[in-house]
Amino acid sequence: MSNWMKNLRRVEPYVPGEQPRSLEVVKLNTNENPYPPAPGVAEALHQMNTDTLRRYPAPDCGMLTAVLARRYGVAQNQVFVGVGSDDVLGMSFLTFFNSEKPILFPDISYAFYEVWADLLRIPYEKQPLDASLRLVREDYYKENGGIVFPNPNAPTSILEPLSFVEDIVSHNPDSVVIVDEAYIDFGGTSALPLIEKYDNLLVVQTFSKSRSLAGMRIGFALGSPALIQALNSVKNSYNSYTMSQAALETGTAALEDEAYFQETIGKITQTRQEAVQRLAALGFSGPAPMANFLFVTHESIPARELFAALREADIFVRYFDKPRIDNYLRITVGTPEQMEKLYTFLEDYMKH
Questions:
Q1: Per-residue model confidence (pLDDT) at position 22
Q2: pLDDT of 285 higher than 90
Q3: For residue 207, what are the contacts with CB-CB under 8 A and spacing of at least 6?
């Protein structure tokens, strides 16, 4: 081994869902929105003055943070934006998790948490979900260097009530608590109202799921001015120009069409409820879903076998080869037409 290789930072990377090249694939594996962005997004791109691209975008991302502040009823200095919620979360790990005490997060959760902790050499302890795959609030009462968890959780799709979130935050006044709400728009109540009461709470959301802009990479955080100032200080010590001009303009356009947003959410939640019933009739069960995906296991057919058979038929779902969840499939809620192809394949497969 060359001497320089001994000094490389080595980490086991996060493995995202497969992105097939074919457009014929029924893609239900990465929790993308099956519907296009709001019409105003296309108009914003069409009207965009490309001459602005020779300049750096505004480092404060003011045009987007102003609209986010209005939409969520907070001050502009309570909003931080980044290149997808992954960027926001990664920056938050770098900013807030710097003590010698371990940070806490669920053992079955978003796999990137462990990757960031390893990359940044942050000590951590994973807290086991209970037998019903739910978080145990008492596990987060102990001394720690910070807490992060998704709500709804991924990949389980289980939502904890606002009272549960507040209980954890209130028990940890000396730690930053990050609630990752990538899927909150599909059901439940956001922890956003709590940020006025708790200055140590950071709520992180994304445009990738409910606003159909995964390809534009826009995420944001809402919290106390002190938290947001700290995030901006770290960001500006790393990369002041995180957001592209196209992202700022399309993100703004997406936020301005509330009617389209609600319509799309309604379609997905209706299709989700139908999926629960159709899959149950085929022998599947799982937690009550509150995200834009289902987490299901079959009564007799192993998940690994179903995953392979579906993939062979160009129907992509997500399979996690990990303890306790290696007999589950995570299935994104697609359009009714996409879901019908899934049901048709499964019905035929069950006959053989």
A1: 74
A2: yes
A3: 213, 214, 216, 218, 219, 220, 251, 254
Which of 316, 300, 296 minimizes the C-alpha distance to 350? 300
Tokens standing for 140?
Answer: 């987060």
CA 123 to chain centre: 23
Calculate what percentage of the chain has a pLDDT beyond 90: 92
Q: What does the pLDDT read at residue 1?
A: 65
**DSSP character string of 268-314:** HHHHHHHHHHHHHHTTEE-SPP-SSEEEEEESSS-HHHHHHHHHHTT
Strand segments (E) across the chain: 26-27, 79-82, 103-106, 124-127, 147-150, 177-180, 201-206, 219-223, 284-285, 293-298, 315-316, 318-319, 329-332
Q: What single-letter amino acid sits at 104? A: L
**DSSP calls for 130-165:** -TTS---GGGGSS--S-EEEESS-TTT-PPPPHHHH
Residue carrying structure tokens 């145990």 = 136
> What is the pLDDT at residue 11?
87
C-alpha torsion sign, points 22, 24, 27, 32: positive
Instruction: Give, in degrees to the nearest 5, the angle at Cα 78 between 76 and 79.
Output: 75
Cα angle for residues 181, 31, 103 (degrees, 5° grid): 40
- Pair of tokens at residue 46: 């069409």
Task: Estimate to the nearest angstrom the gap between the alpha carbon of 282 and the chain centroid.
Answer: 29
Q: Which SS3 state, helix, strand or coil, does residue 59 take?
A: coil
Q: Give phi and psi for 177, each to the nearest 5.
A: -110, 120
How far apart are alpha carbons 352 and 350 in whole angstroms?
6
pLDDT > 90? residue 4: no
Contacts of 102 (CB under 8 A, 6+ apart): 123, 124, 125, 144, 145
Mean pLDDT of the chain: 96
**262 Cβ partners below 8 Å, 6+ apart?**
none
Mean pLDDT, residues 64-90 taken together: 98
What residue type is assigned to position 267 of the chain? K
The model's pLDDT over 125-155, given as tens digits with 9 standing for 90+, comes to: 999 999 999 999 999 999 999 999 999 999 9
